[in-house]
Amino acid sequence: xxxxxxxxxxxxxxxxxxxxxxxxxxxxxxxxxxxxxxxxxxxxxxxxxxxxxxxxxxxxxxxxxxxxxxxxxxxxxxxxxxxxxxxxxxxxxxxxxxxxxxxxxxxxxxxxxxxxxxxxxxxxxxxxxxxxxxxxxxxxxxxxxxxx
Length: 148
What we know:
By secondary structure, the protein is mainly alpha-helical. About 60% of the residues lie in helices and about 0% in strands. The chain contains nine helices and no strands.
């Protein structure tokens, strides 16, 4: 039996999480988080999503110095840092889906103040405790037309 890699048709769009081999399933994602992520995962998020590194690390609540240390030392993202990086990827994935994979519109939305987040941009709000979940929730409410 020959097993071939999955290749989507041109019409079928692969989400960011899938493209990065990150699970969207909570059980599988928990296993991935327990193992940690390679030091280069942020670079792969930036390259795959074509979103500025500054936006990604802002959403993950990681400063440039921490990113540089991880990159130089080639250390894994583990614990709370891994969760923040994973959730930043989830937010970007959800924003790209919301804007039908239009990378520029997704990044503009992430960096624009949102009334639903108290006038703070989703990228900035994501760095607060529970902020990443609030941004993912907001994207879902916008996608499904739920207005509160």
